[in-house]
Design brief:
single chain, alpha+beta, 5-stranded antiparallel β-sheet, 5-stranded mixed β-sheet
Length: 395
């Protein structure tokens, strides 16, 4: 590292060799992770997952306990006696811990449980307060919006310097989109598509795009009590049910003509994974666009299945995947690859293997009942409200 100011008998070319990592350095988090995992696996008997190395598990006479690692914010879930034993073991191995008895604030997310501890709400009030402090004056006079984005409107990256925003406003735009992206990540999947549209034009922003940003922020601030709906529907002892909705907006981007993929994965009725993403290449038909979206969703499903298997949780097979395109369902069972679909041959075979092995089951869902629609396009308020009500709720 560079020599600190005030150090004598050194030149600007001199540097210090660190014998031990100190807090605040780039490598500090990595070194902490290595030490923390070493203690858990070598001294406390935990098993690290191959699917997710940040999830560890231990089963012994004290009970079952899981440890989830997020930098230096760690979550311990399990039997009370096993949890107490892990905490004491970490302290005995030289770690200084700040222990919270209940899960009410984690990673700047507020978690509020029902009285019977069977339901929960997850929100990000700290981030929303920051949004309000940064953009509150700009959106104060705007009308109340019923959707986070203008219905059926697409943003196009600006290439005309005359229409570009000034540097200060451009910086505010990027900051606002960044905060909204973090909001989508944890608690507000209902605004995912609107934020994806905004993120397309980060380096080519216009006044129209800035107005769309203010609309999304105004929508969030007017619905600040909305958060992720956590209401599991499983019964004790029964296998967990996974249901996935997938959709695409064919050639939806007017600039590149790429399609948009969208999917939501529910575990026991609780949304755990959602995504609104532009596809990496241009597709030649709506069926192909749906198939690309489906294959991306299947990769997420397989990750969750392997994760649940590592955790020792039984799953109900086959996993239901709901799509609203008959051609996609036909392609999953048709063994013949036609010339028109050769370009998706690899994705086809990838999904078809799991369908054949009864791991997945593709089922047709009506347009109005497909929850993933709001991940692919900005819809009118009635559809937005209908699909959002299944994934978010008021505090």
């Amino acid at each position: 590292m560079e020599c600190p100011p005030g150090m004598r008998n050194v030149t600007p070319e001199d540097v210090l060799a660190l014998l031990k990592c100190i807090y605040g350095l780039v490598q500090a988090a990595r070194q902490y992770h290595k030490k923390f995992v070493h203690i858990l696996t070598k001294k406390l008997g935990f098993k690290a997952g191959e699917v997710d190395p940040c999830l560890l598990i231990r089963r012994d006479e004290k009970g079952l306990v899981y440890v989830a690692i997020y930098v230096d914010d760690n979550l311990i879930v399990g039997h009370p006696e096993a949890i107490d034993d892990v905490i004491q073991g970490l302290k005995d191995n030289g770690l200084i811990l700040k222990v919270e008895d209940t899960l009410h604030d984690y990673l700047s997310c507020e978690v509020k449980f029902s009285d019977d501890m069977t339901r929960a709400w997850l929100g990000q009030p700290h981030l929303i307060s920051k949004l309000e402090k940064t953009f509150g004056d700009e959106v104060k006079g705007l009308r109340e919006y019923k959707t986070p984005g203008t219905p059926n409107q697409y943003l196009i990256r600006n290439t005309d310097p005359a229409m570009a925003l000034d540097k200060q406003q451009h910086k505010r735009f990027r900051s606002g989109v960044g905060m909204l992206l973090w909001l989508v990540k944890h608690s507000r999947p209902d605004i995912a598509n609107a934020v994806r549209e905004l993120s397309k034009v980060l380096d080519g922003t216009t006044e129209m795009a800035y107005k769309e940003l203010l609309q999304a922020i105004k929508y969030v601030l007017d619905s600040k009590t909305m958060g992720l709906r956590i209401e599991p529907t499983f019964k004790k002892g029964e296998p967990w049910e996974l249901v996935c909705f997938t959709d695409s907006d064919y050639a939806g981007d007017p600039d590149s003509r790429r399609s948009v993929s969208g999917y939501i994965l529910y575990v026991c009725g609780v949304p755990i994974i959602w995504r609104s993403k532009m596809q990496q290449s241009v597709t030649l038909s709506s069926s192909e666009a749906e198939w690309v979206s489906l294959s991306e969703a299947v990769k997420e499903i397989m990750f969750v299945l392997h994760l649940l298997e590592f955790m020792g949780i039984k799953v109900q097979y086959p996993v239901t995947v709901r799509v609203d395109n008959i051609g996609t369902i036909f392609m999953s069972t048709n063994l013949t690859t036609m010339g028109r679909t050769k370009h998706v041959d690899v994705r086809t075979k990838y999904v078809r293997e799991y369908v054949k092995d009864d791991v997945l089951k593709l089922i047709f869902v009506k347009f109005e009942d497909n929850d993933s629609h709001i991940m692919t396009k900005n819809y009118l308020s009635d559809l937005q409200k209908k699909h959002s009500s299944r994934i978010v709720k008021r505090k």
